[in-house]
Design goal:
Helix content of chain B: over 70%
Order of helices and strands of chain B: HEEHHHHHHHHHHH
Strand content of chain B: under 5%
Number of domains of chain B: 2
Number of helices of chain B: 12
Shape of chain A: flat
Oligomer: heterodimer
Number of strands of chain A: 0
Strand content of chain A: under 5%
Largest sheet of chain A: none
Number of helices of chain A: 13
Distance between the termini of chain A: 54 Å
Number of strands of chain B: 2
Shape of chain B: globular
Distance between the termini of chain B: 52 Å
Structural class of chain A: mainly alpha
CATH superfamily of the largest domain in chain B: MetI-like
CATH architecture of the largest domain in chain B: Orthogonal Bundle
Largest interface: A-B, 95 and 91 residues
Order of helices and strands of chain A: HHHHHHHHHHHHH
Structural class of chain B: mainly alpha
CATH architecture of the largest domain in chain A: Orthogonal Bundle
């Protein structure tokens, strides 16, 4: 009896090992596109289409990177646009969503619940339903082909308000009540007590918002056509023009730089990124 | 005295409340609420950028529902959604079951990295890489197929295969998301019940179908709803891999909408297409609300 259970335990161990081996293989396969693009970015252009493909850089030759920066595509400007939009959108959402979350979670005022409900409905609308009027409005205001337009439309989100409100409601209220008794105003309470309480959730929201803005494709694609105002995801089409000239390595050098911030963010704060993204469910 | 202080406090609270919600409400009204309402109105008009709108009633909707082209695109989108949702969730579940066992920390870090990295990198970037993998003569995939003696596949250039190729990339990109969510759900399955079942000699399949599956089914349901909403809006992966072709064989509603709006400047018609997309998403959301209510009650 004892030997039998030892045998099954032994068998189970081997099953575990086999499954992990298969997973390892799949994991490596999953990463192949990234290995390949990274290795390609260091490869001299004539070798781009060499077969069999290799997934490790032959040398760390930076000439493709130099070509990107010196090309006719204003890559640095585009990179700057992406940073500008993603950073400002992130800051904007942190500010507007925190303020609103504090009010919805902690204050009483007439119409509070209906306002919150109206805000929540926003979670249901796909980006496709808002883009046409925004396009028409921006055309009138001169905000087409302007990264500022992308910033403005991203300054708040129903999701951010919802997430921070839920988080704040799970935090203890006693400190605030004590502060109120001591005669502190609501702005002071917000700044001194609720904001520090919200810090962990703000980190998650910042990561989600930044990656979402960095990856956004649909809206920039609809609102921006001039090269100087593009963000990285839509500029990829432009860079792909190179591919027809056989200069794939240069495209991949640009791509490596384009995905770098998100990859770094992920390597450094894996757990936080995963928790944030699964909570929000962004589909980049 | 005390009474006055209380009412002062209430007033201060009210003021603070409105001031705090004001920025987000204004922005939300300008960039979400008003645009949604305008889109709905626009969908009943023929809109010309220089001459303005003409009321045409349901004409745009009639056109959508009677034109063979738009109906093909509608079915394409549903077909893509069905395939992408099934495989994303099924593969995610298999991966979650496989990963839900004791293993060293560094392996766990590696697996999370490998399966989740595609989730957070924009499809706009990785689809460019995939379009090279898929290319017929120079593509990595066809090269390896050739090595093991299989025929070359026209991944993106055949209208029969292109949709499958897009689904494959979509699963590669998104399945890690569902894997992570399902791992969390699996870890919530109570250990003692599982142990008791294996003591009683229940097979692995029986344990899965009788204990695990019922236990995680609310989460599974959420995954399906969530995947459907995302898949119905599919845009950049198709845009970059095929641009909707060959022919219309991979065109989705989102791409059609952009073509009509910014290619042909048929803004009224494009608005009708987006309202139809909104209705699809709405239907799924309502199913979700009904479904989750049922589970909560049980």
């Amino acid at each position: 009896m004892q030997t039998r259970s030892m045998q099954t335990r032994e068998a189970k161990k081997w099953v575990d090992r086999a499954i992990i081996a298969v997973l390892l293989l799949m994991g490596i396969l999953m990463l192949m596109p990234f290995f390949w693009l990274f290795s390609m970015s260091f490869r001299p252009a004539p070798e781009a289409y060499k077969m069999p493909p290799s997934f490790f850089p032959p040398s760390f030759d930076l000439s493709n990177y130099r070509t990107v920066l010196e090309s006719s595509v204003p890559f640095l400007k585009i990179y700057w646009n992406s940073l500008y939009v993603a950073v400002l959108v992130t800051i904007g959402q942190l500010v507007t969503c925190t303020l609103a979350a504090f009010a919805y979670a902690r204050l009483r005022f007439p119409g509070r619940d209906s306002l919150f409900f109206v805000m929540l409905i926003g979670l249901m609308f796909p980006a496709q339903v808002t883009i046409l009027p925004i396009y028409l409005g921006y055309a009138k205001l001169g905000l087409l082909n302007n990264p500022l337009g992308l910033v403005l439309m991203g300054l708040t989100s129903s999701f951010g308000v919802f997430m921070l409100r839920q988080f704040l409601r799970s935090q203890p209220k006693e400190l605030e009540e004590a502060a109120l008794m001591d005669g502190a105003g609501y702005f002071k309470i917000f700044w001194r007590i609720s904001l520090p309480q919200l810090m962990p959730a703000l980190g998650a929201l910042a990561i989600i918002t930044f990656t979402g803005a960095w990856n956004a494709y649909f809206q920039p694609r609809a609102l921006i056509t001039s090269q100087d105002s593009m963000t990285l995801p839509i500029a990829m089409d432009l860079l792909r023009g190179y591919m027809s000239q056989g200069n794939l390595s240069v495209v991949m050098a640009a791509m490596s730089m384009a995905i770098l911030p998100v990859v770094l963010l992920f390597l450094v704060a894996q757990k936080m990124v995963i928790e944030g993204v699964t909570f929000s469910g962004i589909r980049a | 005295m005390a009474k006055r202080r209380l009412s002062d406090l209430r007033k201060a609270q009210m003021q603070a409340g409105y001031i705090f919600v004001l920025p987000s409400i204004l922005l939300y009204a300008a960039f979400v609420l008003a645009p949604v309402i305008i889109t709905i109105i626009l969908s009943f008009t023929y809109y010309d950028i220089s001459f303005g709108a003409d009321w045409v009633g349901f004409e745009n909707y009639v056109r959508f529902l009677t034109e063979p082209r738009s109906l093909e695109i509608f079915w394409n989108t549903l077909r893509f959604a069905f395939l992408a949702v099934s495989f994303n969730v099924a593969v995610g579940l298999i991966l979650a079951l496989a990963l839900n066992r004791a293993m060293p920390k560094f392996l766990l870090y590696f697996f999370r990295l490998a399966f989740f990295l595609p989730v957070i990198i924009s499809a706009a970037f990785v689809a460019v890489v995939w379009s090279y993998f898929y290319s017929v003569d120079f593509g990595v995939i066809n090269y390896y197929l050739g090595q093991i003696g299989l025929p070359q596949v026209p991944w993106l250039s055949s209208s029969k295969v292109a949709m499958t190729s897009i689904v494959i990339m979509d699963v590669w990109k998104n399945t890690g998301f569902f894997m992570i969510i399902l791992i969390a759900a699996l870890q919530g399955v109570p250990r003692p019940i599982m142990d008791a079942a294996s003591m009683d000699g229940a097979s692995a399949w029986r344990r899965f179908s009788r204990i695990t599956l019922p236990f995680i089914s609310p989460v599974l349901f959420f995954c399906i709803v969530f995947a459907s909403i995302g898949a119905l809006q599919v845009f950049e992966s198709i845009m970059i891999l095929t641009g909707g072709g060959p022919g219309d064989s991979t065109r989705s509603l989102s791409i059609y909408l952009v073509d009509e709006a910014f290619g042909s400047f048929e803004l009224g018609y494009a608005a009708a297409v987006s309202v139809i997309m909104m209705i699809l998403v709405l239907i799924i959301t309502i199913i979700q609300i009904i479904g989750s209510r049922r589970w909560v009650r049980e």
